[in-house]
Design a protein that fits this description.
Serine Threonine Protein Phosphatase 5, Tetratricopeptide repeat, mainly alpha, globular
């Protein structure tokens, strides 16, 4: 229970900080003096272009059609979850995610496993989610939280090093603080870099 709470809290904090990182370059037009609004409009246009580049990095959803059979399986899995049958719900969502290659179903399998406090199943769902959506920031945050809590530093090292390398200088300090806060939760704390 405690580890699940820590994992979810860390993931939410890291996701929130990632949102701050993306918004750091945007000007606040509503509080700007009228003389600077015109110059800020060009900055806003530049940020829209940058956001378009970010949108290209997002993983496309599969072209699977929502037919009656798929809808039935999803609803059945949701009903099983509501009835407390987490194993059936988890297995259904994970199998559907593998079948359709839809990262949203892998995420739902993760949510079921977290609700049932099943760390092993949650890690399996996260791995599938990351496989289906390799550019998902949220999936990466969950993955990092789980592998650091399980002391798998060899898997965490390249991801953390890449994040620090790609971070802009303005947010690198915040990112280092986030990494430090995450590593504090680990049982064994070897030097990471």
């Amino acid at each position: 229970m405690k580890n699940t709470f820590i994992i979810v809290t860390l993931s939410l904090l890291l996701t929130a900080c990632a949102g701050i990182q993306q918004q750091a370059g945007l000007p606040n037009v509503s509080s700007a003096p009228k003389s600077t609004i015109a110059s800020n409009e060009s900055s806003v246009e530049a940020s829209k272009v940058a956001n378009t580049d970010i949108a290209r990095l997002e993983d496309p959803l599969p072209a699977t059609e929502l037919n009656n059979e798929l809808l039935f399986k999803i609803v059945s899995a949701e009903i099983a979850q509501q009835r407390g049958q987490w194993q059936a719900s988890y297995s259904s969502f994970l199998a559907l995610a593998q079948q359709t290659r839809d990262p949203r179903l892998a995420r739902r399998a993760l949510e079921v496993a977290l609700h049932a406090k099943q760390a092993g199943e949650a890690l399996s769902a996260i791995r599938l989610w990351r496989e289906l959506a390799p550019h998902s920031e949220e999936a990466t945050q969950y993955f990092l939280s789980f592998i650091v809590l399980s002391d798998d530093f060899e898997s965490a090292r390249p991801i953390l090093a890449q994040r620090l390398h790609e971070a802009r200088p303005a947010v690198r300090g915040l990112m280092m603080f986030q990494i430090q806060r995450m590593l504090v939760r680990a049982k064994n704390k070897p030097p990471l870099f």
